[in-house]
């Protein structure tokens, strides 16, 4: 019997099935700017309506949160996570997402699982007026074990050059406003899985995995609601490294983000993780978002307006002068 690609572990037919299952839904994310459809070697996106446009791009994955999804066979939220991790990053510069591409790798392709992951991306793209214009599915036996998946995404957005937000306008006296996270988002799951090895255990009246798999919050609508009304000095997406690593990325030299840790509303699941794992609070803040998914820095005179525009936002500190870019009191 002669060797075939299928005998080597790659089933092209399963790949074709995946495309069939997602093609219609993916097409529903397209708008008049998308000039071609799935199946081309490259995706065409026409840009118009901007005076001096700047493209802003970001790429990310969902890390070992995938392991929770795979072990519990709950795949629908992972695609949302993948999109959100990328789109929330470019949002920090005031960009609106234009289009998104995904990459899905596995040891043995199951079209049902792959389609469910991609359909999560579709729903997130629709919610953010973004087109899913392409992607790649790679079946790689030997590199991944059967049942293993990895997922990553790439998002491109746009902003007028004179409206780019980069933190350069932040000054002493500005207020720091927190937008709550929906949970762990997609960071720190190697530690989460170590402390919580049983995803089926009950937590607050339901299986723990339901809390762990709550998808990363999408901040597009909230942030742009603020940008339409208020001049924003800086925006930080709180991902891996928590406030300690992400807030300093937008703080100019000579200034410090002084944050009152007692004001941070920490989710109960994170407090349980901290307690059960015997994890120091500083370590928690250096690994997880601790309930703060996004930070906005605005002039003090605009702080109340931002809080009015965003029902669940709250103030956690202010910008002061100082050599350290962040001072988080715990």
UniProtKB/TrEMBL annotation:
Q: Which residues form the PurM-like C-terminal domain?
A: 171-323
Gene3D superfamilies xrefs: PurM-like C-terminal domain, PurM-like, N-terminal domain
Where in the cell does this protein reside?
Cytoplasm
What InterPro entries would the database entry show?
PurM-like_C_dom, PurM-like_C_sf, PurM-like_N, PurM-like_N_sf, PurM_cligase
Against Pfam families, the record matches this protein to: AIRS, AIRS_C
Q: Which UniProt keywords apply?
A: ATP-binding, Cytoplasm, Ligase, Nucleotide-binding, Purine biosynthesis
Output the superkingdom of the source species.
Bacteria
Task: Give an example GO biological process.
Answer: 'de novo' IMP biosynthetic process
Enzymatic reactions = 2-formamido-N(1)-(5-O-phospho-beta-D-ribosyl)acetamidine + ATP = 5-amino-1-(5-phospho-beta-D-ribosyl)imidazole + ADP + phosphate + H(+)
Which CDD domains does the protein's record reference?
PurM
List the SUPFAM superfamilies.
PurM C-terminal domain-like, PurM N-terminal domain-like
Molecular function as annotated in GO: ATP binding; phosphoribosylamine-glycine ligase activity; phosphoribosylformylglycinamidine cyclo-ligase activity
| EC number(s) stated in the UniProt entry for this protein | 6.3.3.1
**GO terms under cellular component:** cytosol
Q: In which pathway does it act?
A: Purine metabolism; IMP biosynthesis via de novo pathway; 5-amino-1-(5-phospho-D-ribosyl)imidazole from N(2)-formyl-N(1)-(5-phospho-D-ribosyl)glycinamide: step 2/2
Chief site of localization:
cytoplasm
Family per UniProt? Answer: Belongs to the AIR synthase family.
From the Swiss-Prot or TrEMBL record, give the protein name. Answer: Phosphoribosylformylglycinamidine cyclo-ligase
- Gene source species: Chryseobacterium pennae
């Amino acid at each position: 019997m002669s060797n075939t690609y299928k005998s080597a572990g790659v089933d092209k037919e399963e790949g074709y099935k995946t495309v069939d299952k997602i093609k219609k839904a993916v097409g529903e994310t397209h708008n008049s700017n998308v000039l071609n459809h799935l199946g081309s070697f490259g995706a065409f996106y026409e840009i118009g309506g901007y005076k001096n446009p700047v493209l802003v791009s970001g790429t990310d994955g969902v890390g070992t949160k995938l392991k929770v999804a795979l072990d519990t066979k709950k795949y629908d939220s992972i695609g949302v996570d993948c999109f959100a991790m990328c789109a929330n990053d470019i949002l920090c510069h005031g960009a609106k997402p234009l289009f998104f591409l995904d990459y899905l790798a596995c040891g043995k392709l199951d079209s049902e699982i792959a389609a469910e992951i991609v359909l999560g991306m579709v729903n997130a793209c629709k919610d953010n007026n973004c087109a899913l214009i392409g992607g790649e599915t790679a079946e790689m036996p030997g590199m991944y074990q059967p049942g293993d998946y990895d997922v990553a995404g790439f998002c491109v957005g746009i902003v007028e050059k004179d409206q780019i937000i980069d933190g350069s306008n932040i000054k002493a006296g500005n207020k720091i406003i927190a937008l709550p996270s929906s949970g762990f988002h997609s960071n720190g799951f190697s530690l989460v899985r170590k402390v919580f090895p049983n995803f089926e255990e009950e937590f607050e009246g339901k299986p723990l995995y339901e809390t762990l798999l709550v998808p990363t919050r999408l901040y597009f609508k909230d942030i742009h609601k603020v940008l339409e009304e208020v001049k924003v000095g800086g925006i930080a997406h709180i991902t891996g490294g928590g406030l300690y690593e992400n807030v300093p990325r937008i703080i100019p030299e000579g200034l410090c983000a002084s944050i009152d840790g007692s004001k941070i509303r920490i989710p109960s699941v994170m407090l349980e993780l901290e307690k059960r794992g015997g994890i120091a609070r500083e370590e928690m803040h250096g690994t997880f978002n601790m309930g703060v998914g996004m930070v906005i820095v605005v002039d003090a005179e605009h702080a109340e307006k931002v809080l009015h525009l965003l029902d669940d936002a709250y103030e956690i500190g202010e910008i002061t002068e100082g050599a350290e870019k962040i001072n988080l009191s715990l």
